[in-house]
Please model this.
Amino acid sequence: MILSVKEIADAIGCASTSERMISTLLTDSRSLCRPDETLFFAIKTDVNDGHRYVAELYRRGVRAFVVEKIPDIMTEVCDADFIVAGNALEALQRLAAYVRSLVDIPVVGITGSRGKTVVKELVYAALLKAGKKVVRSPRSWNSQIGVPLSVWRIEYDCDVAVFEAGIDHCGQMDALKDIIRPTIGVLTEITDEHDGGFDSREQKVAEKCKLLKDCRTVIEGDDNRKTAAMILEALGLSPDLLDGIEEVSTRLDVHDGVNDCLMIYDEFTDDPASLAGAIDFMRRRRTASRRNTLILGDLLHRKGEDLNLLYARVADLLQIAGIDRLIGIGSEISGHSDAFDPLMASEFLATTDEFLEKYNISHFDSELILIKGDTSFVEIRRRLETPRHQSILEVNLDAVVANFNAYRSVLNPQTGIVAMVKASGYGTGALELAKTLQSHGAAYLAVAVAEEGVALRRAGITMPIILLNPVTTNYQALFAYGLEPAVFSIRELEMLIDEARRYGRTDYPVHIKLDTGMHRLGFIDNEIDGLVGLLCSTDRVKVSSAFSHLATADCLDQNEYTESQFDAFERMTMKLAAGLPYAFRRHMLNTAGIMRYPERQYDMVRLGIGLYGISPLPPEETHLPLRPVASLSSTIISLKEWSPATTIGYSRKGVLERESVIATVPIGYADGVDRHLGCGRASFIVNGKRCPTVGNICMDLCMIDVTGADAGIGDRVEIFGPDAPIEVLADTLGTIPYEVLASVSPRIHRIYYRE
Model:
């Protein structure tokens, strides 16, 4: 939709006389693409405030804003349009409801727990095949913000609209129903997802069913393809349109490629809107050291669409996005190669086979590569990815964000979060986590050693990084990469001051570590006066924060000791504050402390294992909907049937008591599967069935009993993940989940993905 600022203001009940034309609504400053046509909604949420980004967006060219209050820094600006609304989110929703009122077309509204996006994409592809002009929710834009942004995409000549509506709390569907106003309502499978936001499953179903209330047709189903077929019939179209259309995956995978390349593989629908979303994801992973490469196939389009115009729009998108290199694969994109900027390095091929014949790994070096095409592009992915272990650790970046926001929701708005990514992100890999956390508002990252911080800086991480273990002889790297050291002794501080003087640094930020009861590292009470004297005698360093570690925050029976640590921290930091001529921040809470001692937030908290979806507290003490971040899996490489009394593995420790099917799995104790999990002490998941280990865990292999699991060669074996909680393995080993996660070997291939 394209409207003037005046029309938009009228629609949301505000005042403006501006005729500036708006084609793009923006709620996330990182997704800015066309600043001169953009209207930014400064939305306040429990975890962020869009008003913080108004000045930055103005500097980047945006000249239209919906705000609840004009920021003080912008009050003298005269070339921008400000629409002042009581609530920016409600203003966005009112605007979307107005846009919906401008068209009289069939609108499909889909809600449920699972299958919404898959059903929507099946219907979308079938409608394009029928020659219909369709607007639909990009990917899974089904939230209080995503739905209005989706509805804004309606054009006057659309034939059909298909929108998702997702909720996680009671009362949310009312606004979405008023925006979508579906004529055909669809309820997909209801599961236990988001049950925590409702008093009961019945209440959740009733809330979702509000979307269906005024629909002319209501469809309910838990089979995606059958549900899509019923939607087509309700639209007066043949379900046969679904023939040949496959269900899409909603995943965006990120993993290492050959020759220092980073690869993004998108399996979602191949259409311009989805391409724009994938490129937006790609832009957030850029670094100066890698050029941006797109491998793109023919795009999905409606029957009879003007392909010259379609590929011209795609070319415009690539130019704005700063794509350096394009490899187009397919007869249609090749036939419209003249639409693309001749200044862009580009080449066009007819088929995937032609690409595989022409290109080898030497043709790609230090590139960020987005691969988006049909299923044949899997072979391109295999060609360009680094050789991989048959076992993988999958890291769900959406779960990282969800956990980060879950903890942020219980903090004061002004409390910063120090995100712990030390030990290679607790074994998950620090870089992708750091990129994700940097873009979602973490105050600091924390690493253990200088090498970890240097690696993040070289990969493009610009946010502040605390170095928790600053003992180093490489001060040049410390200063060159802007790593902020924790200081725990007078000796360390004196050495740092001397090195800062040698390198000509002043006011270099340091973090003072206090020992309040961990009795590991840090200044103690009787050292504070000397510390203050040394700090006041120099301008080479400046205290950025003072912090301490809780020893017993997760011990429900040691509250008295924890309180004594808080008392010591108060006493020591007050003495430090009284002696310094400037203010500094304080932080003491870890993951357990955030939940148990919210009154002790101070200026920042340190979020560790909770970020990874693991609570150090019992479930009744957590009260947060945490999601597992990491899933370790392997594959079956051998299956054999053995009779009773057969022995399996080293030392003949596995003795079969029945006719058994034994699978060999290429993962062992060198990969992080502890040897103590063998001999039936642990079970792994195959086809939904728990399959116990048999015999000793080997260095590179293990054996499991898959009798009755209908297993086959190549089947996935989940070591830990959503169906096999890591806490269970930790309990079996008599350790903590931290150790299990951090023990996953670097040789295990990491795949990062967004859902």
Remarks:
- Residues 651 and 696 are 8 Å apart (CA to CA).
- The mean pLDDT is 92.
